[in-house]
Amino acid sequence: MILLSLYFITPLGSLKNLVVTGNERVTQDEIIKATQIDSRDYTLTTFLNRNQYANNLKKANSWIEKAEISYQFPITFKIQVTEFKILAYEASTGNIYPVISNGTVINQPVKKEALPENYMRLNLSDKAKVKKLMQELSDVPDSIKNEIQTVDLTPSKATKDLLTLTMRDDHKIIVPLSDIHKKLPYYSRVHPLLTEPSIVDMEAGIFSYSASLAQKEEQEKNESSEETEQSETEAAPSDVTDETNN
Hints:
Blueprint: H1 2-9, E1 17-21, H2 28-35, H3 43-48, H4 50-60, E2 64-72, E3 76-83, E4 86-90, E5 97-100, E6 121-123, H5 127-137, H6 142-145, E7 148-153, E8 162-167, E9 172-176, H7 180-183, H8 187-190, E10 198-201, E11 207-210, H9 211-245
Parallel strand pairs: 1-3, 4-6, 6-7, 9-10
Antiparallel strand pairs: 2-3, 4-5, 7-8, 8-9, 10-11
Helix pairs in contact: 2-4
């Protein structure tokens, strides 16, 4: 009892050696602070409350997916963490922010020189849509996900959440956000049949057509519209003159 009392009333009772492992993007000091382990806490109470400290860490830092605190006699506590992986980068505002695997956009801008060589760029300002996209992509094979270069919101009259995915080989996929988990896996069957840069339309059914043909049709449509507007503009003064003469 005397030895136990001495242990608690002397600094020996609160000595702790905290060792952090598994961290890459979060510093050791940030992790220890987030656990809320106080230097004045007894070693015994730290051991008894280690699960609560691990939960504190997960709640306080968005990067942390898993956290576990183990004890090693006499005073060492090992804080083992697993960080979320970066799946994409959100860039709708000009700045580039990492998007982790649970769909959270981390509010820490990334410099362009620090970006990986190939990455998925999201031009989606709505964070709810970003989270939904990450959820939908979780069921899509990596062989398809890794080929997505950019994601843009391109709504149509019928589909407000329609996305255009630009692939690294210049193919484009048009697909509703809510249908990605169902429709996008079929791209692996369509892709071998594409002999030139194409648009794979998954809005209603699933069909593909040449991107150059679609661009030509769009250009002709715009030119026709411009000619119509020009004709109407040229006809207007004539009408006014006729009315004046009458």
